[in-house]
Amino acid sequence: MLHSFDIVLALEVIEHLLYPKEVAKNAQKCLKPGGRLILSTPYQGYLKNLALAVTGKVDKHFTVLWDNGNIKFFSVQTLTKLLTKDRDTDLQFKFAGRCPYLWKSMFCSSKISEKPEEL
Hints:
Layout: E1 5-11, H1 21-30, E2 31-42, H2 46-54, H3 58-61, H4 76-84, E3 91-96, E4 105-111
Parallel strand pairs: 1-2
Antiparallel strand pairs: 2-4, 3-4
């Protein structure tokens, strides 16, 4: 299945992984040259986290009491850093939610570089 696919989807998965770099590394192996990795993850941005703190909802939002819950939290900056490390990519972000900058989820489309490199 090496370099067989045009698109790899990872929707609401990466935040559950101990080794999220493996998503990009394995997508790179599966994608044809110029293929795209499309992923989504809960949005974590400065204003959203500030709003959670001001309203006293940090513990509820980041609770450790859910089995198999999120173990990593991504912002645009951290997801960009993860996906562009040592590679040329074309990142495009979209967001879903009721209020700008308090979004529920973010979607990222990443064009994997034509020459695979190690992460």
